[in-house]
Each structure stands twice: as C-alpha cells, then as structure tokens.
Batch of 2 targets.
Target 1
Amino acid sequence: MEIINGKTVASVLKGKMAEEVAIRKTNGLKVPHLSAILVGHNGASETYVANKIKACKEVGFFSSTFRYPDSITEEDLLNVINQINENDDIDGFIVQLPLPKLIAENKVINAIKPSKDVDGFHPENTGRMIKNLPCYIAATPYGILKLIEYYKIETKGKHCVVVGRSNIVGSPISILMSRDNYPGNCTVTLCHSKTQNLSEYTSKADILIVALGKPEFVNGDMVKEGAVVIDVGLTRIEDKTKKSGFVLKGDVMFDEVAPKCSFITPVPGGVGPMTIVALLENTLKAARREVYNS
Ligand code: NAP
C-alpha cells in the first residue's frame, strides 16, 4: 500500500512552475498574473484567497485581489468582470464563491471570459472538457488527475466508481476518467444519494473516488482489495484539544480502508494541497495562451 503524498507532489509541481516563470522572465515573456475577486467578509473565502495569493508568490506569479463589500450590486460586479476580461495584464481570474444571496452565481460565472476562466467553471470550459478539447479543468478534478499521473497509476480499462455528482468535483471527474486520454479510459460508475446498495458499486471499484462530504462514510467492507482510493472529502470536526479547535476528516475511514488499497490519499495532505496547484497550472496555461490562442 502506498500513501499518496499530495504535499510532495504539490511542492514538486510548484518548483517546476517557478523554474518556468524564471525562464519566461529571462526570455522577456509575460509573467503570469492571477486575480481574485472577493466579495464580503466570509472567513473561509478570505483564507482561500489568501492561500491562492501566497501560492502565486511562491511560484513567482503576479497576483491581485479585487475586494468589494457584500452590498455590491450584481450589475456593478458584472462591470468589474468585464473590465478584468478586457485587461490584458491579467491572464486569469477567479470569483471566490459563495457570493451574497442577491447575486446570481451563474450570471457571474457566465460573464467571465472563457480564456481567463482559470477556475474552469464557465460552461464553455465544461463543454470543452466533455468533448476532450483544450480547456481549463476545474481545480479539484485537475488536482486528482495530476496525482494519478504523478504516481503513474494505470487507469486504462479500469472500473472507476465516483461517489458524489457535484458540479465542482464528482461530475467532472467522472467525465475525465471516462475520456479517451491518460488519466482516463476507465469504465465509470457515478453514484449519488439516490443510488441503491451503494457498497455493491464501491466494492467493485478498481479506482474509487469519494466526494460526498460525509466524514468516514466509506468503511473497509465497501472497498475491494488492491483498490486505488481517492478521498476528496474535507470536513471540519470540532476538537478542543487542537490549537485550531478542529480536525479535518475525509470521507473514508482511513485506518480500515488503507490496508486494503494499492494507493490511497490521506486527509489532510492528499487531494487538498493539489487544488491550488491546479489553479496555478491553469494560470500558467493562460499566460502561455495554450488553451485559447487569443
Ligand atoms: P456536494 O456539492 O455537497 O455534493 C455531495 C454529493 O454527494 C452529492 O452529489 C450527493 O448526492 C452525494 N451524496 C450525499 N450523500 C450521499 C450518500 N449517502 N450516498 C451517496 N452519495 C451521497 O459536495 P462537493 O462540493 O462535491 O464536496 C464533497 C466533499 O469534498 C466535501 O467534504 C468538500 O469539503 C470536499 N471538497 C474538497 C476539496 C479539496 O480541495 N480537497 C475541494 C472541493 C470539495 P445528490 O447529488 O443526490 O445530493
């Protein structure tokens, strides 16, 4: 059994990106620039954006944050997005979610220019992903692909079972794992809350990707001997003995499941560290004009 070390992979990939940025600078090419739009004062969103900005610094990207109060109107926010769309200095940007209730998230996402949509949430990027065309893949599924690639895990012809069908994780990773590509070429089963006899499916998986947000939901009996288990779940559980006041739990009972696996991601330290790296990779692609040529 091998524990997939997301921290190590993230650090290796960031090192490679930093090297590329240094070469770009030497050759007089544009240094990638990622922007984040942050609305309101949601503590978790503030932390996520701060971590993204910190990661940009680590690899030598430029970054900028556009902050607005909760009271910003939808129209004003859409105007800001249009301005950033037209700002040639900014290669890619994200709108940190969630947004205040009065702002329609879909309208905002649809307003982002697809060539700058490094979160990969715009329907054009989702459509391109489904058609196996160049696109920005959303950060979490992209991070999972990078882990599978790094550990050279065989995927062709395998049965991949995904639990959870959210737009940001379960649904895109199910499509990606079924594409004619590496990683991919799996036979995929997508499970959700209406699936009956869930363990009948999970226990047949060669590759099990779990993203449902229910701590320690998957136990040893639900997993096949030799399976690859990717645990996306990340839930804060109160723990007064910890300085932070909480511990992070995945969707998999690690101690029970790990001995049966060929590979498994821990929580924390598995998929989590890859998410920001994936966003940086998309920003680098944007600066290279690799996905969209204009
Ligand atoms: P979500 O939008 O809440 O979706 C959860 C999915 O799980 C839904 O499709 C739901 O089915 C399904 N589900 C719920 N209970 C189930 C059950 N008993 N059996 C089978 N399926 C069930 O969650 P998400 O945004 O994808 O996030 C999932 C987890 O991943 C969360 O813990 C989140 O914090 C974590 N996450 C981690 C990262 C990271 O970077 N590590 C990134 C994103 C998310 P229905 O569709 O039928 O309701």
Note: The chain has two domains: 28-113, 139-273.
Target 2
Amino acid sequence: MSDQQAKKRLYIKTYGCQMNVYDSERMADVLAPLGYGLTDTPEGADLVVLNTCHIREKATEKTYSELGRLKALKLAKAAEGGAMTIAVAGCVAQAEGAEIMRRQPAVDFVVGPQSYHQLPELIARTYRALGQRLAAEFAAEEKFDALPVDRAVTGVTAFLTVQEGCDKFCTFCVVPYTRGAEYSRPVEAILAEARGLAAKGVRELTLLGQNVNAYAGAGGLAGLARQLAKISGIDRIRYTTSHPRDMDEALIAAHGELDALMPFLHLPVQSGSDRVLKAMNRGHTSDHYLRLVERIRAARPDIALSGDFIVGFPGETDREFEQTLELVGQVRYAQAFSFKYSPRPGTPASALAGQVPESVKEDRLARLQDLLNEHQTDFNAAQAGRTLPVLFEKIGRRPGQVVGRSPYLQPVHIEGSPSLIGTIAPVEITQATRGSLTGRLAQDAMAVA
Ligand code: SAH
Ligand code: SF4
Ligand code: F3S
C-alpha cells in the first residue's frame, strides 16, 4: 500500500542501535496490511510508536521527554474529535514497561522487542479497550516466524537481523536483560529475506546482531556470509556488532577470501586495562584483543577497524585510562564510538564502589576522542589519490552530487548523474576530511557511465 492510499497515519521514532532501525522497518511492514502508512511527523498521526533505547541514562530519559511532547499532540487530536494511539516499543519498554505506564498515562500500550508481531492484536485490543497494555515476553523465534516475509525497502543497502540477544553479561550493560538470550535465525529464513531484498534492488546487506559473530546457524557467520554472497545482486556484505570472543578462524579466513565481505570490522574492546576488562566481565585481555587484530590484519591487511570505548568505569584509575589510549595507539581505529560510563539500574557495575566523578569522565572522554579523531582523519587522508569502488546510494545535498560508500564505509561524494545510484563504480579520491571523502569517477568508469 502506498503512502497516499493509506487511510491511517503511522509515525515511528527510532532511538538506539541498528537493530532498532531494522525493527522499526519490520513494525511498519506488520502494520501496512492494517492500513497504516508511514508519515514523517507525529502531528495528527493515528498511531505513534517510540522505538526506545535503554543503553545509557540519557537514552532512557529521551523516551520520557518525547512522551511528554506526544501527550500534548494526543490531547490536541482528541480536542478535534480524533484519536492518537501511543505505543512504546524497544529496550526501555522491555526494561521498565510498567514504569512507563505509571509515569505517562497517555501511553496506550508497551511492546517489547520480541513481541512486534503482536502489534496488530495490541492495537485492536487498545481500540476495544480491553486493557492488555503490556507485551514484553522473550520468544525471538516467534517474532521472526510471524513477521511478514515481504519487506518494503527502497534503497540499495539494507539491514538484516540474523541474531538477537546476548549471553555475555558485561557488568555495565542492559542488553542481556532487554533483548534476552542469544538466538540465531535459521539460515533458510535469512536467505529468503535476502533474496527478497536483492529482488528489490538491494546490493549491500548489513547483517545485524547484538553479538552477530556468535551466529550459530550452519557454518556460523562465515558460512552464512558465503551463502549470501552467492545470491545474485548481493555484492557487498557487512556485519555488526562483533564480540572479540566470538571472532573465530573461519570468519577471519573469510575476510581474506570472500570478495563480498567488506574490509571493515566493528570490534569493540571497551578498555585497554586488563583489570577493567575483568571487572567488565569482557572475557578477554588487551593482549588477546591485540593478537586477534594482528590475525585479522594478516588475513585482510587493509581492513578498517572500528571500536566502542567506555571511560570512567567504576574504579578506573588514571593509569588504567592511559592503557586505553595506548591500545588505541597500537590499533589505530578508522572510526570509533566512545562513551562515559553510565550506571544502569539492575547491572552489577552500577553497585560497584569507586564510581568516577563526572568531571573526570568528561576529561578522559575528551582526551580519548581527540586521539580517535586524529586517527580517523589520518585513515581518511590516506585514501587520497587511491581509486576505490563506491556503491552509490543517494543524491547528495548539493545539486549534481551523488553519495555512496567506500569498502571502508566512508561516505564518498562526487559530481555525477543520479543514474549512478545502485551501481558500484571506481572513484578517484581527491580530498578527505574526518567524516567523508570527495572524488571523481575514474576514467574507465566514465566510459561506461
Ligand atoms: N553488543 C555490542 C554493543 C552493545 S551496546 C557489544 O558488545 O559491543 C553499544 C555500546 O554501548 C557498547 O559497546 C558500549 O561501549 C556502550 N555501552 C553499553 N553500556 C554502557 C553503559 N552502561 N555506559 C556507557 N556505555 C555503555
Ligand atoms: Fe552488552 Fe557486553 Fe552483550 Fe555487548 S557483549 S551487548 S556490551 S553485554
Ligand atoms: Fe539500545 Fe536496545 Fe540497541 S538498549 S543499543 S536499542 S539493543
């Protein structure tokens, strides 16, 4: 159903990780047969879904402030004789569904990440005012089985969730509590979804999972990637997020052998201090991580690495923080995310002694980010003069501009025809900044374009 034909307007706001982005798309897919079409503003919408994130305190707070704004819109619609249904989905819904209902009565129902296939029923029940307002069970299997096979994609890149949940229980993290136990989707279901996406023009897949490299279907993630690469039209495969403990030989080898597997790997380490890593329950030391990086680089020398870092974990000393800077200096990440430790309710680390003062966390974060930014700038600058294959995704902000991605996930801007979108063409890189690359179509590409 196209947006114009849709009788009911659906607004979905997404916070948090790519798994939430995928889930939001799937929620829209579930609701389309019920006559809901997506709109890009909440004003006047019939159904508003907030897909929330619980990872840090700030993320959770956003849920409540957004709900305050939505309540006003709901009242405005009611004053005009209409009705707006407000649903809260995602990880805050899972972690504190009852609290949401108590704090914000404007919320009609709460639905956890494994229950999106129940959305039609929850909406119907809301209309019937039967009052079942909370669905937050863990059954990943049911969720995927019950979602429609057909996806309403329009772009040339797509997310595809292959794994959900986490059994690692890092002491700072809520994910094992909000997303449940590790679950791998069956290979056949993933292949079917991927074929459907390829048929709609998707050329690059990003396989998603909280611990995607723990994928336990036939042949592990490496086996899955090899099968996906055989699908006609699928030229590029990425995956995120990986845990160092699950990076097996087969996957490392695949990076050296499988052309479709892009040379970019998000492999969070969190800290460079072994004492902190142990207190975090990461299950690896800094040395183990560095040796792993060496092995990956031996298989694929040009691989771009990306990471996540937490500064100010309880008890982190200046020296321990310095060890994180040292590890960063050794790895030289192409890109990274770094955060101040945020104590999360119900996690073991939140009860530890030695919580680090906010000002110290801020200081450390600034120092770490300076170093990470420097490395990112260097990594991008090193591409100048090279010719990279770019998958063009969309038109750029400036007239005449098209934008795509390099194998290393860098955005690449060129002056060119929109007909390039959906194609992979060689681009000569002429300029680099920290965030992106600029270039021109290489001579041999101009001949065909
Ligand atoms: N499964 C992934 C990602 C989990 S959440 C992994 O294991 O890496 C994404 C990132 O958020 C984490 O890697 C971590 O760096 C950060 N994070 C998680 N909990 C946090 C907390 N309590 N405070 C600050 N950052 C946190
Ligand atoms: Fe959280 Fe650790 Fe699991 Fe990642 S591996 S989701 S950081 S508990
Ligand atoms: Fe946030 Fe949940 Fe993802 S807590 S980071 S939305 S798994």
Note: The domain at 3-129 is CATH 3.40.50.2300 (Rossmann fold).
